[in-house]
Amino acid sequence: MPRGNGTLKAFVRDWAPPGLIRLVQSGLDYVRPAPWEYVEKGWRTDIPVQGWNAPSITETQKRNWRAFAESLKGTGPLVVNHEDPYINSGGLRDHNTIISCAYVLALAARQKECLSVLDWGGGMGHYYLLSEAVLPEVQIEYYCQDLPLLCQAGREVLPRAHFFERPDGCFSQQYDLILASSSVWYEENWRPLVDRLISVANPYLYVTRMIFVEQAASYVAMQRPWAVGYRTEYLCWILNRGEFVDYVSAQGMDVVREFLISRGPHIHDAPEQGDYRGFLFRKKAAATINGRTRSS
């Protein structure tokens, strides 16, 4: 038997039937690494990842935008997902995500005519459309922070919203509600980010659509979202539930409500599989003055 990778390749090229070679090469096109995979050594900068500022993400979301907007109209069940190729996914995960967010929006908007929302990592502004759909009588002041390509696309479809490409741009004011949906876990140093979000939350912070584990320590996973058309990959934290809640609580926040959204996807080789959850926090020193919630 030939030895060495180069020698083996030469042997296959010279002796294997051409039809067999074409068949194997065709089959390799369907071989893909796991969509979710445990990263053993934690957050590693030596792993090549494209991240979120990838053209394929913006192109996919722009292509799905009109169908997503239409799906929020009418009286049908809210089972929409702007990242699902079919938009109306029919899945309980998407239904629970949206209804949980609607609950949070309604609570934050209680006795208000206007609600200011900062959507951290909000993409093109999909939650703005959801806010208008579930709170039609409330004026929404919507602010979104994300990467340049998504902000540019957001300005095209939502000129009435405010988009921040620079992270510091959105921390000059306070907001009735901070929404962080599937975004905090993409920060290598997530604690300083949570601190900054808390500093401008007046009084609510809602962190949702992240996978949490109960027993294992927080760990890092590689996500490859190729199935939804994103030709990229990125690292994310799978946080221990207790660690996360304890940290946010220690920064002067109370848990108002925890949301169980669905089971998480299978993460290859992970020490523990987790669940998609959400947590609504409220500042402990918050008080209501003249119908508006303010931090004292």
Report the helical percentage. Answer: 25-40%
Class from helix and strand fractions: alpha/beta
CA radius of gyration is 22 Å
CATH class: Alpha Beta
The major beta sheet can be summarized as: 10 strands, mixed
Distance between the termini: 78 Å
Mean pLDDT over the full residue set = 87
Keywords summarizing the entry:
single chain; two-stranded antiparallel ribbon; alpha/beta; 10-stranded mixed β-sheet; 296 residues; Rossmann fold
Word description of this protein:
It is a single chain. The chain has 296 residues and is an alpha/beta fold. It has a single domain (34-295), classed as Vaccinia Virus protein VP39 (Rossmann fold, 3-Layer(aba) Sandwich). The protein is built from 8 helices and 12 strands. The strands form 2 sheets. Strands 1, 2, 3, 4, 5, 6, 7, 8, 9 and 10 form a 10-stranded mixed sheet that branches. Helix 3 packs parallel to helix 6. The protein is globular and about 65 Å long.
